[in-house]
């Protein structure tokens, strides 16, 4: 064994050792944060176990009833070298969706080969139980952890003192000074799939956390041709927290560094463990700021998502080359590809949960460039997109992609009773209304929203809490709207190139179809209260709600109508044009420019000269060529105030502080414009001609370079 890296950690906030275990949890539950070649991880099971001791090898000093009780509780095992068989679960299980002890995984049928079960589960995507991401993928039953750990413990105590010493952080063959309880996790590491990732199969490993000794050990598991599983000793490594004279250290140790095998994905090189992982763990350990959001892709299968995303990315990557909009093509194309992959897996698992065969229909409100609609429609989901303004790219999709230009206002004319899902992808002013529209369209209508800009029901969202970030508060507001509309609202975090990547999903209702009438009264009261209107006092009848789309049996509009829907139907036509809340304004068809980009250039130059004149205390500005300036007596203007002209001699050279991309742009723009200080400042430019990026006179001007553009392949 060898220590391959160590870093000292300064802890001014007294965050250790708790911060260390928080950092370990990130690497355990979200390894893709550090290793970009991983798609994610699935936590299959978790156990609290005792430390391996001599009795695990069959030399137990305990006799009598206690020995018989322990033997009865131990699963049926074969030796570690001979492979492991399934045994009954003896403890609680925990998946990535926060499953409790009572939520156990399904047992494997008796006599079924574990390799065949694993392969079938990965290919078929075992649906498992609804709403539990940790059991959908069905790779291996969690009872394997009991068998794996018990057999591994026997091998340690019986004939592997070096590994036992590595786990305990002590001398070979010695035992911990005090009884120690270990937290043992069985996890499946999921690599990204793609042309540059040859390793596509998930890998399992056992993670052993010893809080008392401050160590976490990663034990990779390998399976031979006969289905026997064992620990791959050559790739075992450990992260250790230690303290010496009130100074903390985090170390990485490898059990067999001379036999370490790196595939560059699941098993990185030792240099990466030291230079990347160790540095990240040290930084995370002393960061007291905690995220208020869930981990990414917590509601769907990560394995399915990885495969679907790679498939869609390859299929639609050419859209980047022909993107006709002024927006960044790579950001918008790959963002919509990721959202489409998420929805496709979400809907696939919903069909499995509900026993549906037909693919879900959808309407994307505020569809923008329409690429998400195009992808979902091409993948077989019937749907359409609506936006107030037509985009150039709409003409490129073809007739199978249905996109409509029109404004959506929240009233009874804009309901979608025959649609399964409403989508709000950065839908701006429509975002808080989408749960309302979905709730009033039909009992079976669901919603997916990805909030971006902060809008309330009738305008910009007004903050109410200073203890939360504005983004977190707005997400809570949209979630509150969904709950008020009668939805069970779930939250997830997408993997998209955007800072606003938290989505909210309403898949089911909190009430039965018979309670639609009273539920809609509550919706109306809630919406009015958010507008500033008070709720109806106790004992006073609320204002009559607007009519809704007729509800059929089990929430379908074509069945027999419910009594409350029948009563509301009579006034539907008379109130069809009435807004659900006055004050809502849909976006204008022509987007107005709200910055100074369209102001006349002469006007801008005049304002700049007036400001400079005031800063220089009324000193006359030059209007022609600048005089030779004194390097020591250059006038900076109002020095005793908070604003003055920058002295560029005090700035660091541009090449030392800019990345390569910005340095390239800087070189392309060098001497392409006249220096303002050379032309207008009373003392001229403070920099010499060879040190100024702008031209000191027309003689130094050079033509601007035309940026290279990618060829468009049609």
From TrEMBL:
UniProt lineage: Eukaryota, Metazoa, Chordata, Craniata, Vertebrata
UniProt feature, compositional bias: Basic and acidic residues: 100-116
Domain of life: Eukaryota
Compartment list: Cytoplasm
Designated name of the protein: tRNA (uracil-O(2)-)-methyltransferase
Key words of the record: Acetylation, Cytoplasm, Metal-binding, Methyltransferase, S-adenosyl-L-methionine, Transferase, tRNA processing, Zinc, Zinc-finger
Gene Ontology CC annotations of this record: cytoplasm
GO biological process: tRNA methylation
Disordered as annotated region, ranges: 78-139, 529-572
Family per record: Belongs to the TRM44 family.
Role: Adenosyl-L-methionine (AdoMet)-dependent tRNA (uracil-O(2)-)-methyltransferase. Probable adenosyl-L-methionine (AdoMet)-dependent tRNA (uracil-O(2)-)-methyltransferase.
Zinc fingers typed C3H1-type, residue spans: 669-699
GO MF terms, alphabetically ordered: tRNA(Ser) (uridine(44)-2'-O-)-methyltransferase activity; zinc ion binding
Reaction(s) catalysed by this chain's protein: uridine(44) in tRNA(Ser) + S-adenosyl-L-methionine = 2'-O-methyluridine(44) in tRNA(Ser) + S-adenosyl-L-homocysteine + H(+)
Ranges of Pro residues composition bias in the record: 535-548
Main location: cytoplasm
Secretion signal, residue range per the UniProt entry: none
UniProt entry tagged with the keyword Phosphoprotein: no
PROSITE patterns per the UniProt record, alphabetical: ZF_C3H1 (PS50103)
